[in-house]
Specification:
The protein has 275 residues and is mainly alpha-helical. It has one domain (3-269). Helices cover 57% and strands 5% of the residues. Strands 1-6 form a two-stranded antiparallel ribbon. It has a two-stranded parallel sheet with strand order 2-3. α4 (94-105) runs antiparallel to α6 (133-163), α6 (133-163) packs antiparallel against α8 and α8 crosses α9. The relative contact order is 0.16.
């Protein structure tokens, strides 16, 4: 299959997936309606609460404001911190999971990271059929962005809706560094369900496998077969585990870098009544 045919096929598949969003959205919303009704009765289940953000962009007035805010905000988008014992965090319905996917996908840091990754790929002549020069770089840049979007779609929206799983990382904040690192690394295997129970992290493993498989349609240089696919999945999951460690210690890192963000109280707040 030549590059043009592969690219056309990948675009068609992405379009098909996006056309399924309204159906999955409605299905996820329908499934989620029962817990919402249960929450309405205090005797059956107390009203859920939402966490306040740890940082506010309005607190930073220093130089390079937008760059610092974008850099500091990225690890926080899909992260929540602990709440008081006895309280329950509000689950995300299908539309909110899609909004989270969209918000995370359009972060400017994604485009900057894709530019750097594409430059490294060009220097290493990855996907040699893309060629060199501006045209080759543009193809690598587009493929890298497609990788990022497809991972977010499977990790944050599609599989979390299918398995009723919370796609967010639950920061621990307390305990020894070793315990916190262990908590962060375990997130690749254990996640929170929409009902607040612990469950296997299907979204991490199935989402990574799905995005790696899809990437073969527009990365003609990828080695085919179960072995190469498994290695790419393993490397990707290892990267996610490292990012979870970064998210766990992000408040300390921000303070270490002397960025003037104010700590927020780790207190949950009542949800918007329009939820």
């Amino acid at each position: 299959m030549n590059l043009r045919a592969a690219t056309s096929m990948s675009r068609a598949l992405v379009i098909a997936l996006l056309f399924q969003i309204p159906f999955l959205w409605s299905q996820g919303t329908t499934v989620h309606q029962e817990p919402v009704h249960a929450q309405a009765s205090p005797a059956a289940n107390p009203v859920c609460v939402e966490p306040a953000p740890l940082f506010s962009a309005a607190d930073y007035k220093g130089p390079l404001h937008k760059l610092v805010v974008y850099f500091s905000r990225k690890p926080e988008i899909r992260t929540v911190h602990p709440i008081r014992q006895g309280l329950t965090l509000c689950a995300l319905d299908a539309s909110e999971k899609f909004h989270l996917f969209k918000q995370d996908s359009i972060e400017p840091t994604n485009f900057v990271g894709a530019a750097l990754d594409s430059g490294l790929a060009q220097a290493g002549d990855d996907d040699p059929s893309f060629g060199q020069g501006a045209a080759g770089y543009a193809k690598r840049y587009g493929a890298t962005l497609a990788d990022s979007v497809s991972r977010g779609f499977f990790h944050t929206y599609l599989f979390p809706v299918m398995f009723r799983q919370d796609p967010r990382y639950y920061r621990r904040l307390e305990g020894t560094p070793g315990a916190r690192i262990g908590h962060a690394l375990s997130h690749a295997f254990v996640a929170e369900s929409d009902s607040g129970r612990r469950m296997f992290n299907f979204s991490e493993w199935l989402g990574t496998a799905a995005s790696a498989t899809l990437s073969n349609t527009y990365h003609p240089g990828n080695s085919r077969g179960i072995g190469p696919l498994s290695r790419r999945v393993g490397v990707s999951i290892a990267g996610d585990m490292g990012f979870d460690v970064l998210r766990e210690f992000w408040p300390e890192i921000v303070h270490k870098l002397k960025l003037p963000f104010k700590d927020r109280d780790h207190i949950a707040v009542l949800p918007d009544p329009q939820r």
